[in-house]
Each structure stands twice: as structure tokens, then as C-alpha cells.
Amino acid sequence: MEIKRLEAHQLFQEERFTKKVLFQADGTIIFTLNFMPGQQLPVHRHPGSQVYVLVVQGGGTMIVDGVETEVRQGDCVRCGGEESFAFANTGQEPATLYVNLNSIPDERFAWEI
To answer: What are phi and psi of 32, to 5 degrees?
Structure first.
């Protein structure tokens, strides 16, 4: 088992948003993205993955395949890796996103519970 404190990964910089990796293993990476007001993550994709985002602090505008949606603390979002994704802190306070990026397993080895 490994434990890390979330607040240790909430680093804000005036110059640009920050990315702080918490865990990375077996095709999965978990990290925070930290934004000051006005900072944004450019549009991008993660082919072959699933993206899960929890808004830990603050909020802003999430853009998925060109559709803008306001998100705030406590919102959970799932995006397919083929969808284009972006985020902008449109609020007045810092924002932190907790991101879990997973590879899609080979269905031949999937099992049901």
C-alpha cells in the first residue's frame, strides 16, 4: 500500500497550470492539474484510454468534443480517450482536478463480477 496527501500535489503557479503525478503503474496514471484563475489546459485526446476527472477545488469550464459544460467542486466526469478534452479555470479561485487516466483492458481477458 502507498498513501500520499492530496494537498502535497496542489501546487499553483502564476505562470502556468501545474501537473503533479501521485501514482503511475500498470498502464494507469493518477495526477492533479492545478489552475490559477484564467489558466487553461489545451484541447487534447488520450486514444485507447478512459479519463476520469474529479473536481477537488474550484471549478471552471470543461470542453469535451466542443461542448462546454460548467463544472465545480465535487463534480465527477468520465471521457473516452477519443474525445477531445480541455479545461479552463473561469472562476475567481484556484482549481484542482484529480485525474485518473486508464488504459482500456483487452476484452479477451475481461471477467465479470
So the answer is: -105, 150
Give the 3-state DSSP-derived string for the chain, with helices as H, strands as E and coil as C. CCCCCHHHHCCCCCCCCEEEEEEEECCEEEEEEEECCCCEEEEECCCCEEEEEEEEECEEEEEECCEEEEEECCCEEEEECCCCEEEECCCCCCEEEEEEEEECCCHHHCCCC
What percent of the chain has a predicted confidence (pLDDT) above 90? 81
Q: What is the pLDDT of residue 104?
A: 56
48 pLDDT tier (thresholds 50, 70, 90) = confident
66 pairs with which residues across the strands? none
| Residue 83: all three cell numbers together | 474525445
- Residue that has been written with the C-alpha cell 474529479 in this structure: 54
The span from the first CA to the last CA of the chain, in angstroms, equals 23
Grid cell in block for residue 1: 500500500
